[in-house]
TrEMBL record, chains A, B, C, D:
SUPFAM superfamilies: Glyceraldehyde-3-phosphate dehydrogenase-like, C-terminal domain, NAD(P)-binding Rossmann-fold domains. The keyword Oxidoreductase applies. Gene3D superfamilies: Dihydrodipicolinate Reductase, domain 2 (3.30.360.10), NAD(P)-binding Rossmann-like Domain (3.40.50.720). Keywords: NAD, Oxidoreductase. Residues 8-126 form the Gfo/Idh/MocA-like oxidoreductase N-terminal domain. InterPro entries: Gfo/Idh/MocA-like_OxRdtase_N (IPR000683), Gfo/Idh/MocA_oxidrdct_glycsds (IPR050463), GFO_IDH_MocA-like_dom (IPR055170), NAD(P)-bd_dom_sf (IPR036291). It comes from the Bacteria. This is Gfo/Idh/MocA family oxidoreductase. Residues 148-303 form the GFO/IDH/MocA-like oxidoreductase domain. The keyword Glycoprotein does not apply. PANTHER family: BCDNA.GH03377.
Length: 405, 405, 405, 405
């Protein structure tokens, strides 16, 4: 490498779970990948002065701000990384893009389609000026899912018949788990649907190369009221059964069937009709901790993935018949996406590595002056699916077209 | 044992896949279980004289008949075992019951709710005379599923939140697999829905102790025409791509969401609402050969089963937390349902053993003068779910109540 | 089928666990396979008149004898099936062969090499007269292991490097499990070594196509005394901790390393040296119920099997790299050994099916006038490995050549 | 935390695979754990000026040195982290300790027992002056193995019967994989035995709380010569089959049986005899990429682990019988070792996290003035087992006592 790479000075908004993951990514990316720009952890923003200062030190940011607007005003910030709750995304992202800052925005992109549309318009406008926006569907960068995408793109699966997508967690099973911001619709937009369902919607559309065109859905809130306060442990925790309770205003579980557009985008080829999808997102699947699962059945091959065994991709190739079987590919080979930059084969990666890969891909796109993926438009499409799901659930599960499909 | 047990003389209609399984069951049951009546394989009926004679010899039946009506006329037949296609069930079963013969009828009970209702009325009338009818949902007698039922009945799971039920096969993935009677609606009633979906509907209702009250459904026929004739291999085969084709008149895949009745019947206790169900049946899940899968998530414990590993039941008990995990119970212990009659622990059983257990339970019920389960009424309830699924699919997936629920 | 096949009239000695398995095999074989001879269950022999009569009725034998010598005298017996303990094998087998009866003898062939040598000599002499002997290493006929053998024979694995063989059970873990004949060296010859270790030795040699040439071994008896009497449950049970105890005279666990002969017999090709083997047999592996496991690592492919998931064979093919992985082949395809005679794909078989396949292969060999496998000579080779293991264990684990290797 | 923690200034020797892992650990530890001292990445040492400078920049070290002696001379280095090959460990470690630097030394501690003894003597002397040495058996800090240790210490397993330990890799399966320093005995000390076998020896002794007292062993070098040079990929690669070859002077595979001391150290209780161990380390287990596996069978419970699924621990508790089964514990709960500092449940960790945990534990021990574990004495014990294995293999596998046992 001749000369030092240009810096990419990052300002991050929010410093909770996602903030910690993004911080680790910015810090780690240049240590394992050769990057065309050097990320610098310039500033982190949060409202509480003491807590944001502590977070800056802990997470390794050079400075702290108590108003995200300061990040946008500062000349020494090139990219704004939005890790705050969904109800803040629109304002921050649009302001940042208009100020010429690149944007990485956590998912779901917004709490409504209208917000997402305005954000996408702002992103499109910015892109024409070489300022780029990306949405943080980080699971795309899990090596096993990246390999799944590659196999589909290569045509290995042939026309798709089925997409089976689940995101199963169990941290609300306890009826006295406390009421958190994630259960407040005004903050989070939706419950399991937007929080985890959005991940599998994005992954299913991205890997299949097809958009969802319509859905039939059911939403359920099993526990209508929960204790205010309580001991938080992980995402959930244990509330006091005796104390005051507040209303849960989001879904505990979301299930829907879907049709895909048949895939002009798919290298597998466009059959007369696309696959049928079955989606499920829940926080009540006792024993399933982070079971983000995808299964695609094509005419030539099938794929299956479960994040609880995140370094493996299961692949069934009909060409192997009669001695075919789902093979457990350990996605740790030098030839596999991302993994050659890390450890020898069989030495698995963890959850946060996908964030590092996301940072790498974003830096490379910005340096090359190209639109990173997923774009805000990609995320808007997910948002439209979420909206269709809610509309169907509110209308006796009736089949509901996804806007624009 | 002092004295010989009374005989139970069986006449079987049909001798294909199901006929072979039932024959093995009647032959094997008295060798491993102490039975109150001694099953005798008296006669098998089929239309083709040469083929039914050959089947009688091969499968071990003492005589052959070319008309099922002869079985009903014969004095030396106590029970009629119906293994012929669904469009024949009503006539045979009602005639047999009216003639005072006990009946074991393969599933699905009938090709329509109207048929099933008439059959159930006949069964109820016969029961009052000590003549009993049972429907052959044999999977109930797979030891792992019987253990699942026992655990739910004991209250181990607590209130249920989710039922996840799949029956995935792949024998129609090849677009040139031949057109068989299973793809002809006039013979089979429906496709994957009635053939394999019915199994998971019955299993889910039986194990949960709850009925499905409503559904939202989608049916799909991926391949609309298939070769007439061709080489049959297993259930599917390879047709000639060049020859004449005929229309597929049944579904290739069926998916639906469901609600359960909350379970007055469930020992787990009746919450204000029952669990949400997600069901899928397909013959296009490439690589899944006989993946009859059930997962129940309760508030205290969860269960998971996959027939492709049929001797295991996975059980997650929240009481084990923080060192909880799905345990792979090998359902081969002497204390487990049925298994103590067979081999030492860890020496697994196979597919046909459930048929033997079904024969055992039926014989014991008849000898005791008690109604065997599943009754025709139980099977009628499954039929009503199938009907609701078809109605919803025909009405834009709109939520559809199950009749009688 | 024109004309009736010749009968093969069987007389069985012993009617416990193995007797029940063999009975089911003789009864079932003609129902699923087209056989050149028709097995008839002519007589069963045991010492206790009442119990053998009851067993005959229960297991379906036409007559009972209280002395095995009567089976040999009877003209209407063509084959003697020896299911009694190992200390009786030599006398019965030699007498039967000399009387012109074919013999199927349970494993281990004998309790000593000397006995096995005399039996092999008798078998060789009989074979020259068209009278055949076979040893019941039934696991060879488990379809997944038969497929493993086929793959090795086809050269799919290339030169072998490692054989990993375990047979893990846990029914002696309880220190008060009762003293049974299996723990009495005078009856059983050895403990885990001969009972279950013999199975994996045979399987490893047969599948690899190579003989073991030398071993280094360790034997251990963890619990030296056990209660006399007690409640038997399965193979083990629960004795009274308070009552009298007797000495355990066999090994509880056996472990040894081995070298193979490099495989002139192996289609995989003979490298300059054969693979290294690691063997373990124990009844103290708590939680492992019947984990009969084999793993072969070749230069081109690897295989893995565990009887606790008996319908699957795991196959890793280096030709699939970099997207290789162990594939879980469901050994239920029509093209797989034996399975096409049973159920559709994915409808697994159970433990006893291997006995049926053994009966089929034996009947076909006899009808064709060919030596069935495994021969007594094959079983003698296993016996010599057992002897070398015991010799090495008694001599500070020193490397010990297998006789004749 | 009031005030800034004291720094712990680290100087690292070597910057290859292990150097990258250690660098990531020093960088990451303070971001997720509250540490009593603040690690500073002061300097990295290597012989090639250009390459070490590049490594310093890439891996994030503040300065570079071309002689490890400079690290020892520098006043601003508190700890020397030795990541160079085994033949360099003794000289560096002893010099560092004598200079008052704490030492973290990669495993295996040395290439001979004599070296390890001198290092241990130096460590003991240093410890009396508050200067500490630790050996980098990093797998101990994999959360699942830490939980295994905790369960054994709590007595959950009862007296142990079996230890089954494998470390299976496949990167030498290709006969033309190139000759690297890992295949040169003068550099690496041994092959699979010391490289990966040492890991499972340490883990087995540490978790069981028992030392190995004797062994019977077999070593094998399947491929005696390999190409000099070639394309390195991961640990292995593809050499030119045509070019010059050099001798492989280490073992390709090592297998041995072992006895343990019965465990005065074990909370599980000291039976009259300890468990039997079966160990295997190989680089020829085609398809096994990093299968570092342990299974412990006790009288009350069993444990199983495979690094290829590193976030899970399988646990069988006999108290669950008859519904017992190996439970797949996802070791990601807040209550589990280390994991509460990272992500929500079910969001797994990767290979390098164990190095971060190692750094954390080392920093805490140094700050507390306590001996970190594993000490050099612990590593010396592993070295003595390695020596006994080599001695036994050279003496016809004869049983060989471990020195000091």
């Amino acid at each position: 490498m001749s000369g030092l790479p240009r810096p990419l000075r990052v300002g991050m908004v929010g410093y909770a779970f996602m903030g910690a993951a993004h911080s680790q990514a910015w810090r780690t990316a240049p240590r394992f990948f050769d990057l065309p720009m050097a990320p610098a952890m310039a500033a982190v923003a949060g409202r509480d002065p003491a807590r944001v200062a502590e977070a800056a030190e802990k997470l390794g940011w050079q400075s702290a701000e108590t108003d995200w607007r300061r990040l946008i005003e500062r000349d020494d910030i090139d990219l704004v990384d939005i890790c705050s709750p969904g109800d803040t995304h629109e304002e921050i992202a649009i302001a940042a893009l208009e100020a010429g800052k690149h944007v990485l925005c956590e998912k779901p992109l917004a709490n409504s389609v209208a917000e997402a549309e305005r954000m996408t318009a702002a992103a499109d406008a910015a892109a024409s000026r070489g300022v780029f926006a990306m949405c943080g569907f980080s699971y795309r960068r899990t090596p096993a899912l990246s390999l799944a995408k590659r196999l589909v793109d290569e045509g290995a699966l042939g026309p798709l018949r089925h997409v089976r997508a689940q995101y199963l967690q169990d941290w609300l099973t306890d009826e006295n788990a406390p009421l958190t911001w994630r259960l407040d619709k005004s903050k989070s937009g939706s419950g399991s649907l937007g929080d985890i369902g959005a991940h599998v919607i994005d992954a299913a559309q991205w890997i299949s190369g097809q958009n969802i065109t319509g859905v039939s859905a059911l939403l359920e809130t099993f526990v209508k009221e929960r204790p205010v306060g309580g001991d938080f442990v992980g995402l959930g925790g244990h509330g006091g059964a005796e104390g005051p309770k507040g209303a849960v205003t989001v879904d505990d579980a979301a299930v829907f069937s879907a049709r895909f557009d048949g895939g002009a985008r798919s290298a597998g080829g466009a059959g007369p009709s696309g696959p049928i999808g079955v989606f499920e997102a829940t926080r009540f699947a006792l024993g399933r901790k982070n079971a983000m699962r995808l299964e695609l059945n094509g005419s030539k091959a099938s794929l299956a993935f479960d994040f609880e065994d995140m370094n493996s991709l299961w692949f069934y190739d009909a060409a192997d018949e009669p001695n075919a079987g789902f093979r457990k590919i350990q996605v740790t080979e030098p030839e596999h996406p991302y993994t050659g930059h890390w450890w020898p084969v069989g030495h698995g990666l963890g959850y946060e590595h996908a964030f590092t890969h996301q940072a790498v891909d974003l830096i490379e796109a910005i340096a090359a002056g190209k639109q990173p993926a997923p774009s805000f438009a990609d995320a808007l499409q997910v948002q439209r699916v979420l909206e269709a799901v809610e509309a169907s659930a509110a209308d006796e599960s009736r089949w509901t077209k996804v806007e624009g499909a």
